[in-house]
Amino acid sequence: MTAAQAHLKANKELVAEYIRLFYNEKDFDRARELLAEGFVNHHHGVGVGRDRTVETFRGAASQMPEFSLTVRRIVAESDQVWTHSVARVAPGAHPSVVVDIWRIDNGELAEHWDVGQAVPEDSTLAEMTGDATTGDAAPGNAG
Q1: Which of 29, 79, 84, 122 sits 20 to 30 Å CA-CA off 9?
Q2: Where are the beta strands (DSSP E) in the chain?
């Protein structure tokens, strides 16, 4: 593995670890350690600073304690990592598909952008997140 490949792998592992701790385990104190002091979160209403990000989601998590984010794809290039994920407010709840973009600086998460879309009632999760090369994106597949 080249140094560049190792760097990209480390960036992907950092993002995956943050998602596991922050969104799924709700271990906000440990997740906070992965954020740069001046972390910028472009998600509406969150703002600047790792404390603001943690406290905003801690409040949201109290309203939806079973929220989960399941990463389907993760891609790294340069100082950015992109994830394509499925978000649910609770097990069995209607899912949304989310793309998160993370910028990494000196081994810390420095910036975040995201977009999401609820899976429409006339669609399936497989249509929204499937892989056409394997055939699991065909209309009608379970989701």
Answers
A1: 29
A2: 35-41, 47-48, 68-77, 80-88, 96-105, 108-118
Q: Which amino acid is located at 48 in the chain? A: V
If we measure between CA atoms, which residue out of 91, 107, 99 comes closest to residue 36? 107
Instruction: Kindly state the helix (H) or strand (E) to which residue 29 belongs, with its residue range.
Output: helix 28-32
* pTM for the model: 0.88
Q: How far apart are CA 130 and CA 137, in angstroms?
A: 4
Give 90's contacts (C-beta < 8 A, 6+ positions apart): 64, 66, 67
DSSP state of 27: -
Q: CA 26 to CA 20: how far, in whole Å?
A: 8
Per residue in 98-126, pLDDT (tens digit) is 999 999 999 999 999 999 999 988 888 88
Q: Look at residues 9, 1, 3 and name the one whose alpha carbon lies nearest to residue 77.
A: 9
Dist. CA 18–CA 16, nearest whole Å: 5
Which tokens in the block code for residue 133? 């090369």
Residue with tokens 């097990």: 91
